[in-house]
Amino acid sequence: MPTTLPYGSWPSPLSAATVASASPRIDGARFVGDEVWWGQTVPAEAGRTTVRRYRGTIAEDVLPAPHSARSRVHEYGGGAWTEADGQLVYSEKADQRVWALEPGGAPRALTPEDPTARFGGLTTGGGMLIAVRERHDGSPVPRRDIVRIPLDGSAATDPALLVPVVGGSDFVAQPAVSPDGQNLAWVAWDHPDMPWDHAEVRVGALSDGRVSEWRVLGTPDAATLQPEWTGEGDVIFTDDGTGRWNLYRSGADGSVQALAPADADTGGGLWVLGTRWYTPLEDGRIVAVRTDGGDEIVLIDGDRVERLPVPIVAGAVIEDSRGSRVLVSGSTPDGSSGLWLVDLAAAGTAAPIEQVRVEQVTGADAAVGAEWFPAARKVDVDGAHGVVHAFAYPPTHPDMVGPADELPPYLVLVHGGPTSHVGPAASAKIAFYTSRGIGVLDVNYGGSTGYGRAYRERLRGQWGIVDVDDVAAVAAGLAAEGRADPARLAIEGGSAGGWTVLGALVRTDVFGAGISRYGVGDARALAADTHDFEARYLDGLIGPLPEAEAVYIERSPLTHVAQLTAPMLILQGADDAVVPPAQAEAIRDALAAQGVAHAYMLYEGEGHGFRRAETVIDALERELAFLGAVFGFTPPGVPPLSLA
Q1: What is the pTM of this model?
Q2: How is 423-439 classified by DSSP, letter by letter?
Q3: I need a surface site. Which of 207, 244, 336, 409 has the fewest CB within 10 A?
C-alpha cells in the first residue's frame, strides 16, 4: 500500500551526488585500430575531458590527468580531439595548443606556444591533420581559418610550417578532406548570421595544400551544414531550404540529388564544432539522426528508410563509422547518456533490420531502478504564437503518493540557446525532482530546433516575447488540466533560458518562483560583453544596434524590476565569458533593493555551464531547498536555504 506524503517531501534514493555522476558527457568517439576511443567528462576531476578506451573489460585513460581535451574555439569548442596513425591528437584546455600522444607516452606539441591562438574541429583526411584556428591577436574581432598541422611536430618550433588552408569568412567549421586529398569541403558563415540562419557548404581544390577558389553547395539563404565525402568523390550535405534539414548529394558535375527527404530534421544548431548528424557508409548507405521532437537513428538505403534499434531519443550524434560499423552517442528515455556501436554487416539491402547488432560501448548504469524514472508525456498547447511543444514528467515514486486533495508543484525547465532543443529523456536531474514529488515540464518554446525552420524562426525579432508567452502558455495549460498546482509553479533556465525565466517573472503572473543559472538580464550588456560567436546573435533575436536600442531596453528584464516580485535563486560561474557575473549581480542587487526574497551563489572556477561535481551537487541541493522554502514543503536530505 503506497504511503501518502505531501508532494516535495518524498524520500528519494537519488541524491545530488548521484545526479552529478549519473551521466558523464560523451565528447566524441573514434574507431582506432581494433579499439573504440571516446571522450568523456570527469566531474570528479574538475570537469576535465579525458579520452578513454577499453583494454579487455577495463576502461583506461588514453589521456591521463591533469590533461584535458577541450577547445575554446567559438567559446563552445568541439572537435577537441581526433586520432592519427594510432596517436591521440588533442587541443589542450590549459594552453589551447594541439598535442599528440602515443598511448602510454608523454604529450608532444604540434603547434607553437601562442596565447593568442585556439584550435578546434580537429580532423584527419587525405593523409593530413587539419583544424579550425581562431586567433585573438589584437584585431577588432578574432580571425578564423582552417589550417594544416604537420604531424611530425615541426610547427611547434617553426610557426611558418603551420599552413593556412582557407579563410575568407568570419566563421569556418566542419572541414572535410576528400579521400584522395585533392579537395576540401567546409562550412562558412559571416556576421550577423548564426549557422542555423544562413551558412554555406563550400568545396574547393587543394593546390599546394591551399584553397584559393571554391563553389557553393545548397539552397541560397539556407543553413547548409556537415559536408561529407563519398568514395566516388561526391559530397553529401544537409540543407534546410525546404523548411527541414534533409540530406542531398552533389556530384562533381554540379548535379544535386535529394536523399530520402522527410518531415524531420537531419541537422541542428551548430553550437560545437564536432557535431555530426549522419555518416555515409562505404557501401553507399547512410546512417542518420532524424529529429521531430525526439530523435531516432535511421538507415537510409536508397528509397528504403528504417529506424535502427538504438535506444537513443535525445541528443543524438553520429560520431564515426568504419566499414559497416557506426558509433552513436546520445541519451535514452531514462536520461542516461552513452555510446553505442551499431554493426550493420548483417543488414544488407532488403535484409531484416532486426539483424543489426547494437552494443553499448560505455555509459553509466542507472543508480536506481527504472521505477524511479518518469515516462515523458508529449504536451502540445495552443499558444499566442501557435502550437508550443513540451515534455511533461509527473511525480513518480514506487512507494509514495500525494494527498488526494493536493496537486503537485511543478518546475518548468527552459533550455538555453535559445536555439537549442530538449528531447523526451528523463535525465537524472528530472528524476531527482519527480522522485520527491515535484513534477517537471521541459519546454521547447518557439525558436527551438527539432521542429523545422518555421518553428525556429518564430523567435526572430521576438526574443523576450515568444519564448515568455510560450513557457507561460504550457505551464498554465498544465495547471488548467488539473495536473499541477497553479500556485506552485516554478521556472528554471540557464543562459538564454535564464533570460526567459526573468522575462516570465516580470511579464506574467504564472510563476511563483524562479531559478536563474547564469541568466541574461540586460540585453544591451550582453551585446557589449559577450564573445564574438554570439556578438551579432541578438541582431536576429531582437534587432540590430543602435537602431533597435529602444527595443533592447524595453525587452530587458532589468528594465522592469518593479515587476520582479517572485522569490529567486541565482547561480553563476565566476569565470563565465558568455554571460559575465555582472549580469547575475545586477539582478541580485535589484532584488535586494526591492526587498524580494532571494539567494545568490557565485561558483569559483566555473564558466558558462557547471562541470565540477561539487558545483553540480551544491547547485542542485540549493535548488531543491529553495523550492521547499518558497512552496512550503520540507525536502529530506538537503540543508535548508535561507533567503535574504
Answers
A1: 0.94
A2: -S---HHHHHHHTTT-E
A3: 207
